[in-house]
Amino acid sequence: MSVKYTPTECPKCGTPLAKNPSGGRPTRWCGDGCKRSGEAEMGRLQTLLRKFEEGRGIELLNGDTVSPRRRKVIAEMQARYDHLAGVPECKQ
Asked: What's the domain range around 79?
């Protein structure tokens, strides 16, 4: 069973989102500026995550361990990317 996620605020600036009166797909961004800025930030995060993950792989190959700092940075960047992408937070 899939749970439908509807964002209530802009992931870039936090402004509450207006409901779409005509139905259809819910709005994700409060305006074009936040959309462009958020998508650009997602692109930068994707590039950085790729580099950090490659470094993580090299660490594993060289010493079978990953530094706690690298793990923390990867987790923080992934959380920000997920927030901008509209991935709902897991309630555990």
From this structure: 38-85
pTM value?
0.77
Q: Is residue 30 part of a domain?
A: no
Rg, C-alpha atoms of the chain = 17
Determine contact, residues 88/7, Cβ cutoff 8 Å.
no
Model confidence over 49-81: pLDDT tens digits?
Answer: 999 998 888 888 887 788 888 889 999 999 999
Helix and strand numbers, DSSP H then E, in the chain: 2, 0
Domain count, the chain: 1
User: What are the CA-CA distances from residue 58 to residues 10, 12, 55, 61, 71 (Å)?
Assistant: 37, 33, 5, 5, 13
Q: How far is CA 74 from CA 29, 48, 51, in A?
A: 25, 9, 10
